[in-house]
Structures are given as structure tokens and as C-alpha cells.
Amino acid sequence: MGKNIFLTIAKAFVFFSALFLVSFFTSTKVYGSEEVATIPKSTNYVYGLTSPDEQDFTAIYAYDINGYDQIAKYFKKITTKAGKIAVIKNANNLGVREDGFYFKENTGIKMYHVDWDGIIQETWDDPSLTGSARSGTFLTTGKYVTTSDQLSNKKNELYIYDINYHMLEKKVPLTNKTDIPLPVSKLNSMGDIVGDADDYLYATISEAKLSSTTVLKIDSNNGDIVDILPVPGLQHSPAIAFMEDGRLLLADKNDTGAIVDFSTGLVTYTDKIGDKLPAMGGTQSHVRDFASLNFPSFNVELFAIKQGPETAVYGEEYEYTIKVSNTGNIMSLHNTLIDSLSNYLEYVPNSTLLNGNKVVDVNGTSQMFLGGMKIESPGGVEGAITKDKPAVITFKVKVKDTGDTTVGIDIPNIAYIANTSTNLVSTNKVITKVPGIPISEYILNLYIKQEVLNSRLDLVSPSIGFADVKNNFDQYQLTIPSYLSDTNQAFKFVKIKVADMNDPYNVSIKIPEFYSYAGYQLTATKSNHLASNRMKTPIESIDPSKGLDRWLTVYIEPKLFADAPPFYSWDYKNNDFGKIGIE
Question: Organism's domain of life (predicted)?
């Protein structure tokens, strides 16, 4: 884990530019630096290499970053073994390990090893390090890394050293493997560098005109630049080091610092740390480099929980909830939720929510069923799940009619989360049981009415009608309402117990005298039945196996008379002639 934890994080760091500027440390103006006999060796400190402007000595600083009570807490002037104060102009390329500090002259070829007492233990010339390289750090293997002369050498290489034998092991050319263009001019102004537990390097580069710093994440094994992290507001290729808790500290010589928290994606700024530090009697000191004993291991710890009902019934809608959390110390990037539906389910359109916000469907289908849907923490960067801020996804489904709902079924469901940091993460399996429906519990819901077409003033329009509904086992005689056509009047609702789902019902009506059958309209959903949409054929059978809801309108119309119209009679109004049964 953690090998590709920052891939394409550059897009995520756009989020940082919108964050507010804060003072991260104490507002005290007294830095309180004091010279000590021995620089404390601890992961609590970030170490700086400084050279005063007006005094001829160089010092190692210990910055109590974690305490926040003061910045430059201790310093130690560098001396020779004879106790003489050392004068090292433009010292740079600072790296630290258990046996002390290593650095070189910024524009020369001399290397230095200084112990924790500030005493120079060894020096040597290294002709391979010429020019103004400004970076140095150690890998977990104990190998020392610096960069080539960026002003004259256009190859932009890493130099890997065996510091114990003063031997250059290899040069590793840098290659941009990201999809973000990086101008060569930026590479020619590379600043400080630091490494993590997986031996990825983080190097600062700056564009002074843009007041912006970029951190390159580099694979030390092959020189591949695998990520680009913009940190707005810093200039001059800042010094850089990891703090004890894994946050990344940057500071430029404009007295501006920034701390990057990879677990939350948050950058905080401070004007209380930088290259211009009031120290040693008011003399300004220029911090050339940062180093620390910290080699953080970055890991995404992603897990997902899915919830759904234990039971459901045929035709019922229910909801799934998926909670995706990250307890690691770095953001999980480019997270995509992938799900699939059982053959027994259908998705309810426009029902998907991410952190309570609606997610647009694609042609009536959720994106999670079409290859994947991006998910992120609430209010966070798109696709990024940060520490302790889980993403919550909900969506609704409907249990489909299988054709034989007398049989119970189990509906399993598992979702998956893909990202660039870990292997595919699966949720737990959710099983929803759908019990079979006994035949005696099947109900045909029939909505029925009669309508009169082409009504005549000299012929009373019936206000009621009569219908027979029957199959091989049952017969129902119904009294139904009768209206003028296209008046959108209410249906009569009749519940019919179904004894056999495969035995269709036939509907016939009692036609009043002087009227004739004029067609029907039968739908499986409620709608405004219009006479213009009617079928002029005999009424089709109602097949319960194709659905248990039906809306039926039957149409009648006056007959054409050869002689004068029939006499007006209220018996026609009530359709008393020829009545043979009641409901």
C-alpha cells in the first residue's frame, strides 16, 4: 500500500487555493533561539541549516514545530574538532541521519559531516557535485540523494550516493509521468528535497513571478515524476521536511511557511517561519535547507459498509445505503463506486444521493451501474475521501415481478470501490429476503366505469351500468357508474380475489335499450381515458399474471333510428329495462 498514493493529486490540490490563510503558530514576536551544547536528536524537531548575513559562521537550527510555542528553539554553531568556529559560505543540501548532519557548499564541491555537537567530523571534495544544487536528503536505505546543477545541467537528474564511501552510485534522470505539463524552466529551479518511508522523494520548485510553489513526487528508483502538488503562495523553492505526524512543512525566504496535511487535503499557512529569522543578536539568518528524522509511511485504509432491509415484498421500493470511510493518514483519491443489480431488482430513476445531494442519472440509470460513479467526502475534492469524513451514498430499487410471485427469493448485493491507492474494496454482502405470496392473497384491483358517446337530447343518458366479470372459477356482477364521455370522472374500484393467476377474466356489459356497444379502453396504469383512444373491438381478457392493476372504460352510444326518436322515459335513465342482476 502507499506506492501510488499521490497519483493525480494535483487536481485535488486546486482545493487548497480556496482555503483561508491562517497563523498556524503562536503570535509571539520573540523567537527565543538559544545556543546549546548539543542539538537535540528527536523526531519532534525539523532541522535547518543557516548562514548569517553579517557574521562569519554557520549554524544548525532545531525547530520545535510540534510544540507551537516557539519556532527556532535551539541552534548550534558549527565548529572544527579544534573548537574553531567554522565559516561555510552558502551551506546547503542538508540531510540528517543517526550519526548527524550532511551538507555541501552550495556553489562548491566540498561535502561536510557534522555530529550532533555541531563538530565537523569529516569533509571531502566531490567533483560530481558542481554548481548550485540546493537539495539533499536521505533514503531509508541510508543512501544520500541530491539534485544535479539545475542552472547549467539540463538533464535534471537525481544523484544517489553511498555517503559512507563518498561514492556516487548512479545518476537518475527525471521524467514527467503525469498528465500535467511541467515546463523545463521549472525543473531548472529545483529547491529542497525530502523522502518518505517508501523512498518516494518530494522536491520543491517555484515560479517567482507566479508566487507559487510546486512539489514534485518522484520515484527515487527510476526518476519518474508521478505527481505534481501545487502549494500557492510560496516562492523561491522552499525548504521542505516531514513533521513527526506525517505532515509536510515548507518555508520560503519571504518568511512564509505552509503545512500540508495529506490526510485531510488541507493546507495551512503561517508567517512565523521562513528564511528570514531574527536570531543571534538580531542578525538575519537565511535558512538554506530543512531536514528531519521522519520518514512517514502513507497508507489509505479504506473500508465500505452496505445496508439494506432484511425483507421486502414484490413490487416494493426499498433503499440501499453505502458508507465509505478512510482511516488512513492520506486521502484516498479518484474513488469510484461500482454496483450491479440483481435480476430481481430495477433501479428507481433519480433516486441516487451522494452525501445528501442528488446525483444526475444517465438515461434513467445511476452512474454506478454504468462503469462507476465518483464519490468523495462531504464538501471535499471530487473523488477524494479524507480521513474520518466518510462518503455516504443512497439509492432506491424496486422488487420486480418474477412471473411467479408465489415463490420466495433472496436478493444479494455487494458494491465495490476502486481508486488509485488500494486494491478494489468491497462492501459486505447484503441479502434481502422476499417471501412468496400465497395465491389466496392475490388481489386484482379493477377500476371500471361506463361512458356515453354522442349523447342525444331526446334520449336519456344512463347514470349507471351493469357489468359481468368472470373466469372459469369466479363470476362477479357489478353496478358501475355511467358518465358522458371525456369528462374525466372517477372509476369504481373493485377488489377481486384471484384463485388462479393463469385464468384470465372476461368482462361484458348490459347494453341499455336504444344503445349499442362502442368500444373500450384498458390500461395497466391510471390515466385519463379519452374516447379517441378507445379500441372498437370486443373487450380483451384481463390476465392477472401480467399485472394486478387495471383501469377499464367501456363505451356505449345511441342507436340510429329509422323513425322518430323513442319516447323519453326515466326508466332509461336508471336502466331498469332488462336488468338481470345486481352487485
Answer: Bacteria
CA distance linking residue 137 with residue 289, whole number of Å: 10
In this structure, are 142 and 80 located in the same domain? Answer: yes
- Cα distances from 552 to residues 450, 486, 534, 543, in angstroms, run 9, 14, 10, 13
Q: Could you tell me if residue 371 is inside a domain? A: yes
pLDDT in tens, 491-533: 999 999 887 888 899 999 999 888 999 999 999 999 999 999 9
Q: Which residues pair with 542 in a beta bridge?
A: 505
Residues 414, 338: Cα–Cα separation, whole Å: 9
pLDDT in tens, 443-454: 899 999 999 999
Assigned domain for 349 exists: yes
Give the C-alpha distances (Å, rounded to integers) separating 579 from 443, 465, 492, 513, 582.
28, 10, 19, 11, 8
Residue 471 lies in a domain: yes
Alpha helices in 171-244, H assignment, sequence order: 184-187
* Residue 240 lies inside a defined structural domain of this protein: yes
Q: Give the single-character DSSP code of 328.
A: S
Q: Which residue reads 497563523 in cell numbers?
A: 23
The number of distinct structural domains making up the chain is 3
Task: Report the alpha-carbon distance of residue 181 to residue 87 in Å, rounded.
Answer: 41
Instruction: Identify the CA nearest to 230 among candidates 359, 381, 57, 378.
Output: 381
Higher pLDDT, 381 or 43: 43
Exposed/middle/buried for residue 487 (C-beta within 10 Å: 0-12, 13-18, 19+) = exposed
